[in-house]
Input
Amino acid sequence: MEKIKDFFKKKNIEISVKRYFIDALGAMAQGLFASLLIGTIIGTLGTQLGIEILVTVGNYAKAAVGPAMAIAIGYALKAPPLVLFSLVSVGISANELGGAGGPLAVLIVSILAVECGKVVSKETKIDIIVTPFVTIFIGVLLSFWCAPAIGRVASSFGNFIMWATEQRPLIMGMIVSVIVGIALTLPISSAAICAALGLTGLAGGAAVAGCCAQMIGFAVLSFRENKWGGFFAQGIGTSMLQMGNIVKNPKIWIPVILTSAITGPLATCVFKMEMNGSAIASGMGTCGLVGQIGIYTGWLSDIEAGTKLGITRMDWIGLISICFILPGVLAWVWGLFFRKIGWIKENDLKLDL
Output
């Protein structure tokens, strides 16, 4: 056993929740962003401005989503160069065979392929042949064996959440908003989770609401401590910056969680806000305004498909209210209350910026 541990240490193989489900998942979200999401944004700009080259660029970026996710995962797992470069084939196969649940299939298959590639890396004199062969062969073989099943499970679970939200928009709007919002602030990737489950529609709208509640909520809640620098860092950056303070005093999290519990149902029941753009945008909130761009591109897709007549005034009111106004106002009000009762004290929300 000791020899195995030493071998794994030499090969930088670390079997842990952090390595596989925090580092790898977060990297996968970046791969998704750098391909599918940015491609969608570029393509939408091209369509709206009538610039064909932007549409073409966007299509190529979207087509690279499988390899982009796999390589990002390999990078997070500290894969050697030959293993990392071999993940292009693995990403293509896992994403295509995984269908609607492709991102989850890519995550699981890529992790296994990377670790197998590490085992043989630099163990032979023909490493340039052995390492890519093992990585690609195992990755593609696993894609054939398990990617379709993984995709079906992820897709079924995501479809169930979306169906349940349609049936019970009040309670499911609250649940989805709170859970995805919490995931956004935790050191895991809410965007990758939403992408893996293909979370769109009303459930996607609730997810956006929860993420915005965390980001705008913390930006406003901590304004007296962090001023404008902290406001923008959290409001269009990430609420994950508050994790250190949350560990010290978990009570500072309550105001924004309560805010998401209110804005989620309002999004689903009152404004009928849907995310019909890329599923990854459901878990991005106001980060670079990706969530809002996703909702807008979804409107355009619905109009093009004939399921929506046009963008209404109520659409814009809902988007602005759920994503910006209500999270700020509600978090501020809750913050006043919790500061008054002593649950939030001076500098509890202070960031080192």
The mean pLDDT is 92. Residues 168-340 form one domain. The CA atoms of residues 23 and 159 lie 26 Å apart. DSSP finds 15 helices and no strands in the chain.
